[in-house]
Amino acid sequence: MDKKELILNAMMDLLAEEKGAACSVSDIAKKAGIGKGSIYYYFKSKEEIFDALVERVYNEIIDKCKVVIDTSKVNAIEKLSLLIQSYRSSMILYSIDEYLHQQNNAAIHQKSLAKILSSLSPIITDIIKQGIDERLFQCDRPEETAEIILSIYCFLFDPGIFSWTQEQVYNKTKALADLLERGLMAPEGSMQFLCSSVTNFHL
Predict the structure, then answer these.
(1) What is the Cα–Cα distance from 107 to 127, expressed in whole angstroms?
(2) CA–CA distance, 41 with 154 (Å, rounded to integer)
(3) Per-residue pLDDT, 201
């Protein structure tokens, strides 16, 4: 494993230990088992390390989602549900949310939201197109519809922006499910899977 990966792994370990926000470059170097000077060869600051870590984490999550979707042999509605389940379960494995939601990390947070939107939109676009072929959906603009769906998730359900109660989250996901059913001309009740497992819901 090269030193750059060692540094990113060390930062991830510190985040998992809830020390990421307070750690220094020296702490990261010690965790990685390398000299502090080696870190500055690859990164200019702790913030740059975290930026690279966010990029790596989301690439890994998106890749896992792609594998799940590409290997599944289900209809578009089931595939959309599977995508959301895969994303949620993957996010649980990482410990970057708390750090992302700190005020001084707003720029990185915005970048992470843009990463979600740009990476997941093509996957959802393909799912919508599959649904059209299966006569489950009617949609003239699959790509734009996918981007709108993700924009809602990325903004409205981000716990770093809003502090909704569990009931509020449920009501909003119910409203979104209803809107998607009507907007995609999907079978009644087909999007209600969005309302399940809304505890700590986010993208």
Answers:
(1) 30
(2) 34
(3) 47
Question: What is the distance between the alpha carbons of residues 20 and 43, in angstroms, rounded to a whole number?
Answer: 16
Q: Are 31 and 14 in contact (CB under 8 A)?
A: yes
Distances (CA, A) of 30 to 7, 27, 186, 198: 10, 5, 54, 38
Phi-psi region of 200 (alpha: psi -120 to 50; beta: other; left: phi over 0): left
CA 82/CA 74 separation, integer angstroms:
9
How is residue 65 written in tokens?
């989602």
The position carrying tokens 């809830």 is 18
Residue 92 confidence (pLDDT): 64
Is the Cα dihedral 190, 196, 197, 198 positive or negative? positive
The pLDDT score that the predictor gives to residue 13 is 86
Q: What residue ranges define each of the domains in the chain, with the CATH number in brackets?
A: 1-44 (1.10.10.60), 55-195 (1.10.357.10)
Supply 78's token pair: 């089931």
Residue 152: its pLDDT value, please?
87
The Cβ of residue 29 has, within 10 Å, a number of other Cβ atoms equal to 19
pLDDT along the chain (203 residues), means of 10: 89 76 85 91 89 87 91 95 86 63 65 84 96 97 94 81 88 93 95 72 46
Sign of CA dihedral 15, 19, 21, 23: negative
Reduce the DSSP state of residue 147 to 3 states and report it: helix
What is the CA angle 190-192-195, rounded to 5?
A: 160
